[in-house]
């Protein structure tokens, strides 16, 4: 099946994924999040930091609805290889904007173990920002050691592997308009 579809299920690299969150629900939730963030950051000139690659669509759609003056920068980190968690988080490329004295809003696609976001918050705090908070489109509803508070959450989801709307399965599926969960596999890799 073509991965441009928003059908109930899709095939990516031989695996079946079923629709978890439809495109319309994603867009209306993002509009709500943008309204909340806009109200909270009036006159605070926040700097949004998009965590590449997964958050690129979330960032693009959210920023279209943000009203206050704001900046945008990108950072790339990785803690996943396919569906397998890697222990080490690698910073591949970093920020160009000055962090010190700014109100930082980190934009994430999904929080799983929370290791990536904890690492990022720690690294950014070293640059002496005025504040740091996190907006994540998805939050896996699992117990986690990391104590990072997620200020803005789009959807809580169960502990499943998802692809679509910016998130990939082995490099594919990012262009799907909906969010799909992997089914029928105990060994997704
Ligand atoms: P964490 O460090 O919280 O375990 O994972 C953070 C990153 O791993 C996320 O920002 C995301 O890029 C990736 N990730 C976590 N869970 C999933 C998932 O279910 N699907 C995909 N495609 N990426 C995930
Ligand atoms: Mg991510």
Would you mind describing this structure in some detail?
This protein is α/β, with parallel strands linked by helices. The chain has one domain: Rossmann fold (3-Layer(aba) Sandwich). It has helices at 23-40, 56-63, 115-125; strands at residues 9-12, 15-21, 47-52, 71-81, 84-93, 103-111, 131-140, 152-157, 162-163, 179-182. The strands form 2 sheets. It has a 6-stranded mixed beta sheet. Strands 1-2-10-9 form a 4-stranded antiparallel beta sheet. α1 crosses α2. The radius of gyration is 16 Å and the shape is globular. The mean pLDDT is 89. The structure holds guanosine-5'-monophosphate and magnesium ion.
Could you give a quick summary of the protein structure above?
By secondary structure, the chain is an alpha/beta fold.
Give keywords.
single chain; 189 residues; alpha/beta; 6-stranded mixed β-sheet; 4-stranded antiparallel β-sheet; 3 helices; binds guanosine-5'-monophosphate; binds magnesium ion
């Amino acid at each position: 099946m073509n991965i441009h579809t928003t059908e109930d299920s899709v095939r990516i690299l031989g695996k079946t994924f079923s629709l978890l969150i439809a495109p319309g629900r994603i867009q209306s939730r993002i509009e709500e999040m943008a309204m909340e963030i806009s109200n909270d950051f009036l006159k605070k000139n926040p700097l949004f930091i998009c965590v590449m690659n997964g958050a690129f669509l979330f960032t693009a759609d959210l920023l279209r609805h943000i009203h206050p003056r704001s900046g945008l920068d990108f950072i790339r980190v990785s803690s996943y290889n396919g569906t397998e968690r890697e222990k080490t988080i690698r910073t591949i490329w970093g920020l160009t904007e000055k962090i010190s004295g700014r109100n930082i809003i980190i934009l994430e696609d999904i929080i799983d173990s929370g290791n990536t976001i904890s690492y990022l918050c720690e690294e950014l705090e070293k640059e002496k920002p005025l504040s740091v908070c996190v907006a994540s489109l998805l939050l896996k509803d699992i117990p986690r050691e990391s104590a990072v508070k997620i200020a803005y959450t789009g959807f809580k989801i169960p502990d499943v592997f998802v692809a679509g709307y910016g998130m990939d399965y082995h490099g594919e599926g990012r262009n799907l308009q909906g969010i799909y969960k992997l089914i029928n596999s105990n060994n997704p890799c």
